[in-house]
Amino acid sequence: MYDIKHSYGLFIALIITLVLISGCIGTETDEGTEPEEVIDWKEVELTDTITGDTFKISDFEGQTVMLETFAVWCPTCLQQQKEMEELAGIKPGVIHISLDTDPNEDTELVRDHAEKNGFDWYFAVAPIEMTESLIDEFGFVVVNAPSAPVVLICNDQSTRLLDRGLKQSDELIMELEEGC
């Protein structure tokens, strides 16, 4: 079993390191060097930990997607996933993706989490470049697991980070009706 304080501390240390490193990498070109490539997180290939199939967020263009970032150790995340499960029963056409952004967790741990809880939607582990791209677009809150981050992705692939905190299924329905 993971020590929650230790895992959370390591996660915060990694994020701080990434910020410090990114501040040292310039985007201006020097003689003979190319500018740093900007990664679109919707184009990063992911592997569904349950089925082994690969997908990208952009594969769901034309559909509404709820992308929830989480960590296996996070009890708030589990509560949010249960609300997402309830939402799926009410609004079956919405694609749901749970994206683990904790660098200390792996595919096997995420698959065990999904199976243990009876969840059957997309579960994936975010590669570090995807996590960095999400942070670039939405800020650090998007990887702050205890704040239950959820990104609403509309049919046209426009995005909106929903308010922080646990969102009940009825609140998620209202967000869907207002957001896309």
TrEMBL record:
InterPro entries: Thioredoxin-like_sf, Thioredoxin_domain. Residues 23-167 form the Thioredoxin domain. SUPFAM superfamilies: Thioredoxin-like (SSF52833). Keywords: Isomerase. GO terms for molecular function: isomerase activity. It comes from the Archaea. PROSITE patterns: PROKAR_LIPOPROTEIN, THIOREDOXIN_2. This is Thiol-disulfide isomerase/thioredoxin. It comes from Methanococcoides alaskense.
